[in-house]
Design brief:
This protein has 15 helices and 13 strands. The protein is of the alpha+beta class. The strands form 4 sheets. Strands 4-5-6-8-7 form a 5-stranded antiparallel sheet. Strands 1-2-3 form a 3-stranded antiparallel sheet, with no helix packed on it. The protein has a 3-stranded antiparallel sheet with strand order 9-11-12.
């Protein structure tokens, strides 16, 4: 019963999402000086528009959101934009059939860059199999009207209030309970992924979505890979630099689930200190920052480095005695510092695992070993990186049909 009592207590330790949103909007407004840009920023609501060339497709309606055309299934009514990135725009919406609020991500011109198209395909294949309360749920993928020529992809997710990056940089106070509960959920979600042999490879505060009741969900699986040793290319470019493990920075050919644990440690430190622990400007500077904090490493600790130039670089760095995490975070509990130290170990083979972290004394009030059944369906993310646009488009179409059996039925009847 202790676990459930702790859940109840922590789920009522709210993050004030409205306060966070107000601060974000105020910061954006203060940064905008040009009148036309300010006017553009305040185009907050989705606006109904006529379809392109006046041709309306059956079952679709059209909206302008941040001057981008959204062609949506009629059951979804967009409310307002809530985010944008290199991938496109995200808006909040209501599913009229269920009265459920959702987030719709439009991936614009998906096939202009085949690397990005493969990233979209990989996320679709993965999320179709995953069901866990700490992993974002992909609820729907809208089927376009043109099977062989569609350009945009619309993904429908759970709607969350904000992300951990926005909370960390806000003035919202974070208690030890907050830090503990956020970390607990992140580790639970990650244990589920690792049990499916999945490496996330891009964990950072911006990829952890949060609700006002402190629910956390891991998102953005475009860089995820299976941990089978066959698909580990471009290792030095994956995880966002500040959260990138030493073995990735050092271009090691072999890596495993410990890269995600390092990222979790960096996120944990950012929760405790309200700023990034290793804000490197480039890869070599990143390594210097890590050594400055962790201290110079012994020959045994760098034995895993299979790149001789990389090993020589580490050996050439000036001696550092390191900095104690208890000095960096004097308000943190001793058990929190101990767990952080076990996560941020330079040698990946000595780093604590996710399962071990969940059983650490810092997590003891929340975790029970029978809480996390492993994934039942094995997930295969191996995709030929040399696939052409038409093949990738057809594979994405096939993924869409898993959410629309009525389209499959109509196609079979037509044949």
């Amino acid at each position: 019963m202790l676990i459930r009592k702790e859940f109840v207590r922590l789920k009522h330790t709210h993050v004030n999402a409205n306060q966070v949103f107000d601060e974000i909007q105020e910061a954006q407004d203060n940064q905008i000086q040009d009148f036309t840009l300010k006017k553009f920023t305040f185009l907050k609501m989705a606006t109904p528009v006529e379809p392109p060339r006046g041709i309306r497709s059956e079952g679709k309606h059209y909206y302008s959101i941040w001057q981008s055309l959204f062609e949506l299934d009629t059951k979804y009514v967009p409310i307002k934009p809530i985010g944008r990135g290199a991938y496109g725009i995200v808006c909040s919406s209501i599913n009229r059939e269920t009265d459920e609020k959702v987030a719709i991500k439009k991936i614009h011109n998906t096939f202009d860059n085949l690397t990005d198209a493969l990233r979209t395909l990989r996320e679709l294949k993965l999320l179709r199999h995953l069901q866990h309360e700490n992993v974002i749920a992909l609820k729907d993928v809208m089927v376009p009207m043109q099977r062989t020529s569609f350009k945009d992809v619309y993904l429908v997710y759970d709607l969350m209030d904000t992300d951990l990056h926005q909370i960390i940089k806000s003035s919202q106070s974070l208690s030890n309970d907050h830090c503990q509960y956020f970390l607990f959920q992140l580790l639970r979600g990650l244990k589920y992924l690792h049990s499916a042999n999945i490496l996330h490879r891009d964990l950072k505060p911006g990829n952890l979505l949060i609700n006002a009741n402190c629910d956390l969900k891991i998102c953005d699986f475009g860089l995820a890979r299976t941990n089978n040793g066959k698909d580990q290319f471009m290792t030095e470019y994956v995880v966002t630099r500040w959260y990138r493990a030493p073995e990735l920075l050092l271009c090691c050919e072999n890596y495993g689930t410990s890269i995600d644990v390092w990222s979790v440690g960096c996120i944990f430190a950012e929760l405790l200190g309200r700023k990034p622990l290793f804000p490197g400007t480039e890869c070599l500077n990143q390594l210097k920052l890590i050594i400055n904090i962790l201290g110079s490493q012994t020959e045994d600790a760098i034995e895993f480095i299979d790149n001789q130039k990389a090993r020589k670089y580490i050996q050439s760095l000036p001696f550092s005695s390191g900095t104690s995490f208890s000095d960096l975070y004097p308000e943190a509990q001793p058990s929190a510092i101990d767990l952080l130290e076990r996560m941020l170990v330079f040698d990946p083979s000595k780093r604590i695992s996710v399962s071990e972290a969940l059983q650490h004394p810092y997590m003891s009030a929340l975790y029970s070993s029978d809480m996390d059944p492993p994934v039942e369906v094995p997930v295969d993310l191996e995709i030929d990186e040399e696939l052409g646009e038409d093949v990738i488009r057809e594979m994405i179409w096939s993924e869409m049909l898993h959410y629309h059996p009525e389209v499959v039925g109509a196609n079979s009847q037509g044949n």
